[in-house]
Amino acid sequence: MKDEAIGFAAMRMTVTSMSKARSQVTGVMKSVSQFIEKRLKLKVNQDKSAVDYPTNRKFLGFSFYCIDGVSRIRVHPNHSKG
């Protein structure tokens, strides 16, 4: 019998949640993180997950901003091309 290596993939989730009220986002983030870790058996990457204003965060190379009450999307200024 030949020995075969069994591989597996580790997956980490980054949780991004946006709202005007910080208290709402904190509660949602906690609930979603618990669901991901307990029900889906995945790890939440706490280093990348945060509660912050959308203008301060980068998500998939993009960020959000607001002008005159209209939300817009743009390529994040710190996005590296590669």
What can you tell me about this protein's structure?
The chain is an alpha+beta fold and 82 residues long. It folds into 2 domains: 1-50, no CATH class; 52-82, no CATH class. 21% of the residues lie in helices and 20% in strands. The chain contains 1 helix and 4 strands. The strands form 2 sheets. It has a two-stranded parallel ribbon with strand order 1-2. A two-stranded antiparallel sheet has the order 3-4. The protein starts with 11 loop residues before the first strand and ends in a 7-residue tail after the last strand. The relative contact order is 0.15. The mean pLDDT is 78.
Number of helices: 1
Mean pLDDT across the residues is 78
pLDDT < 50 stretches = none
Give helix and strand order, one letter per element, not per position: EHEEE
For the largest beta-sheet, the strand count, sense and barrel status come to: 2 strands, parallel
Judged by helices, strands and strand pairing, the structural class is: alpha+beta
Summed up, the domain count is 2
- Which assembly state applies to the chains in this document? single chain
Give the N-terminus to C-terminus distance in angstroms.
Answer: 45 Å
Helix content percent band: 10-25%
What is the total tally of β strands?
4
- Strand share of the residues? 15-25%
Rounded to the nearest angstrom, the radius of gyration is 18 Å
Q: Can you tell me the overall shape?
A: flat
Order of strands across the main sheet: 1-2
